[in-house]
Write a structure and sequence with these properties.
- By secondary structure, the chain is mostly helical.
- The chain has one domain.
- It is built from five helices and two strands.
- A two-stranded antiparallel ribbon has the order 1-2.
- A hairpin with a 3-residue loop joins strand 1 and strand 2.
- Helix 1 runs antiparallel to helix 3.
């Protein structure tokens, strides 16, 4: 399996590990929230129309689609990181502000893998540009 597919799969999995906590001892992992969202999608689709719900969900679906491509689309991967990153970075900031270690730690795997993925694509782009310049000189 290509490294880019492995990174995309890890992005999907790590995005599901995000942990939310709010008043009244309520807490939930993102995978639990997504299960609720998917059930509401069938029963009451209008109840899930919110950017912080739709954008990460669509981003995960786009990332999932790249796993079935021969060569994962770099643009789809980066846009998906952006869509998921908004939610997980927001959760990270909330964890920092409230000093909630559980939320902070739950977002780190995604943020680290996203950083590694972006670095991987940047390195490949630079390598490709270098190879093109060498080929032009020949």
């Amino acid at each position: 399996m290509k490294k880019s597919k492995i990174l995309n799969a890890l992005l999907i999995l790590s995005s599901l590990l995000g942990f939310l906590e709010w008043g009244g001892n309520n807490n939930q992992f993102l995978f639990e929230a997504e299960a609720e969202i998917l059930s509401k999608l069938i029963n009451n689709p209008s109840s899930i129309i919110h950017p912080f719900i739709l954008l990460p969900l669509l981003s995960q679906l786009f990332l999932l689609s790249t796993l079935f491509q021969k060569e994962p689309n770099k643009l789809i991967t980066l846009l998906s990181i952006g869509g998921l990153g908004l939610l997980l970075a927001f959760m990270f900031i909330i964890g920092l502000i409230t000093l909630n270690i559980k939320i902070l730690i739950s977002t780190l795997p995604f943020l680290i893998i996203a950083f590694i993925t972006i670095k991987f694509h940047r390195k490949n782009k630079l390598k490709q540009l270098h190879e093109e310049s060498v080929n032009k000189e020949i």
